[in-house]
Amino acid sequence: MSKSYTIEDVLAMPIAEAIDPDIVKDIVNRPPFVHIPGSFNARDVGADEHAEVRSGYIFRSGTFEDADDATLASLQKLNITTIYDLRTFRETQDHSDPQFSGIDIRWCPSTVDNDLEKNFQAKVAQKLNIHEEYAKLMRSHAPKFEAVFRHILEQPDKPFLFHCFAGKDRTGILAALITLLGQGEDRNEALSAAQRDYDLTRVGIEPVRELLLAKILSYGNVDPKDAGGFADLRAFLVELSREYGGVQAYLSNHLGFTFEEIQQIRQNLRPRPSRQ
């Protein structure tokens, strides 16, 4: 492409500003992004070489609101067998998941009602202690997160995808937990990979940027320049350690996994030796 850019500058752009379409196209046509018609912000969680999570197994995306036969064909090409919907009950009622032949779509309730979920989204939109809100989300969404980690434990050979609405907050934190567990939350490479994956949502949401911006601004008291801000995952990691004792302790004490199961989950996440 003719336009030059740095990925750091692009990811730092506020949601109120549109990213040049040519730049968006250039980025989303390369890993970790994958093309799934009818959705957006779709990525392979293991496509980052520093993530220590195997590629082709775990995928993340935004919601499926314009799904059609091409969507199913793409999901089948990626060998996705299960989709985990992280949205609220109200969100699923307003925009239900499409039915895909041969793909199991699972929704688990959270422990917060829709009003509390809206309050969470409003605080994140206003950049009010995002890392603290994310730590709270880990408690309220424990049933949803437990289902995903149990899939990793029990179905290591069945690729799956998880999504919320934009694929930013709920999806982003779950992806970060997976990445941190896969490599070790105390390693800089894991944190950098998790942060990069999280930040790439700024490009991934561009197809629905105006819709998302309008939703964010509807909460009020939001400066458009700061709307829908992104968190520093280092601050989140500090809060995670303070509140839960770290990722492994979270899986043990709040999701109910044994030490042996957590070690097996970690093993199932790691890249497999290539066959000669």
Automatic annotation (TrEMBL):
Residue ranges of domain Tyrosine specific protein phosphatases in the record: 132-196
MF terms in GO: phosphoprotein phosphatase activity
Protein's UniProt name: Tyrosine specific protein phosphatases domain-containing protein
Pfam families per the UniProt record, alphabetical: Y_phosphatase3
Domain of life, per lineage: Eukaryota
InterPro entries in the cross-refs: Prot-tyrosine_phosphatase-like (IPR029021), Tyr/Ser_Pase_IphP-type (IPR026893), Tyr_Pase_AS (IPR016130), Tyr_Pase_dom (IPR000387)
